[in-house]
Amino acid sequence: MRNAECVKQEYENLWNSLTGTLLAILESGEKDLRSAVIELDYQMYKKSESSYIETYKHYRPVLFDQEVFIDDPETFLLISTNMLYSYIGSLFTISNEFNFERIVDLGSGWGRSIFNIYLNGAPKNADYYSLEMTESGRLLSRFLATLEPEMKHHTEYFDFYNPDFSCLNENRKTLVLTAHAIEQITLVKESLFEAILNIPGLTHGIHIEPVGWQMTNSKTERNYDHVKEYQIKHNYNQNLCSVLNSLVERNLITIEQVLKDVYGFNPLNPSTLIIWKKNDNMGITAPDV
Ligand SMILES: C[S@@+](CC[C@H](N)C(=O)[O-])C[C@H]1O[C@@H](n2cnc3c(N)ncnc32)[C@H](O)[C@@H]1O
Fold first, then answer.
1. Do 166 and 139 form a contact (C-beta atoms < 8 A)?
2. Best label site of 76, 129, 132, 237, fewest CB within 10 Å?
3. pLDDT score recorded for residue 81
4. What is the mean pLDDT of residues 259-278?
């Protein structure tokens, strides 16, 4: 199992190490949220550039379930991020159901996902919540949000192991999002999802998590063994798919879309996109005790 205290310290340090970078971006007179997000993303890549270059000697990065050749990681980072988030953003345009009043990112880090979603077509007048365990992550997302004064952005402390959604008590149409955050919880509890489903106005969930290897009906030409091995070695999440399947069996949610390996800048940790909808047949019953 991943050790919660070590994970917290690791990310507290990582996000702290980006604070100076972000302050320098802001002090340089940057006024554009999109440019600041791209720059921060690139600086994050730079911190682990050598490990990426080593990985690329053996495995190719992945985009929409295809292995791709890259000459220039910086350009690939930009293109692949844009492709993923403009795909998700297009759902806000094409689906009448995606008229959310509240978008909640769990384990939001510095806000990479929630800002990319905001910038790519999510409703501008919704309230955006970055819920994150680390103080440094919450601080970075607060700094970034100053670039977009119109954005109704909020940050709160959040812990997957002890989920508290009391800051979301108004009944407003809500989307919950996680991106490489449940990956940090080796065995996620079904009760986390029962709490999510009880958020007033919650209708949909989106996960961008490296869980394609957990799908038993996975059809892929590619060899997946190295991904599975990497995920197990790092104690990354091992049961998100089975928990979601159990919620489907309990008739609590319907899985609307699964796109395997949409984004694998790190080929050993490729994101699968899962979109589910809460079934409106309930009143979720209290879990057995
Ligand atoms: C890989 S980062 C992803 C951050 C962000 N979602 C993104 O898309 O860039 C993992 C995040 O999960 C957070 N996290 C890890 N364990 C957590 C927990 N128990 N509760 C809440 N957040 C947690 C970390 O602090 C970190 O910000």
1. no
2. 76
3. 95
4. 96
CB 140 within 8 A of CB 22: yes
Structural tokens at position 211: 């869980």
Q: Which of 3, 7, 80, 209 to mutate to test the pocket of ligand 1 (most atoms within 8 A of CB)?
A: 7
Cβ contact 104:168 at 8 Å: yes
- In this structure, which residue's CA is closest to atom 15 in ligand 1? 184
* CA 221 to centroid of ligand 1, rounded, Å: 31
Ligand 1 atom closest to residue 109's alpha carbon, by position in its atom list: 27
pLDDT band at 97 (very low <50, low <70, confident <90, very high): very high
Tell me the pLDDT band of 69, cut-offs 50, 70 and 90: confident
Structure tokens at 202: 């919650």
pLDDT of residue 289: 44
Residue minimizing CA distance to atom 20 of ligand 1: 159
What pLDDT is attached to residue 287?
46
Structural domain boundaries enclosing 8: 4-278
Q: Is residue 283 part of a domain?
A: no
Asked if residue 22 is part of any domain, the answer here is: yes
**Ligand 1 atom at minimum distance from 160 CA:** 20
Q: Which pTM was predicted? A: 0.95
**Ligand 1 neighbours (beta carbon < 6 A):** 4, 7, 11, 107-109, 112-113, 132-134, 137, 158-161, 179-181, 184
Q: How many domains does the chain have?
A: 1
Is 62 a domain residue?
Answer: yes
Structure tokens at 276: 């589910």
pLDDT tens track for 116-169:
999 999 999 999 999 999 999 999 999 999 999 999 999 999 999 999 999 999
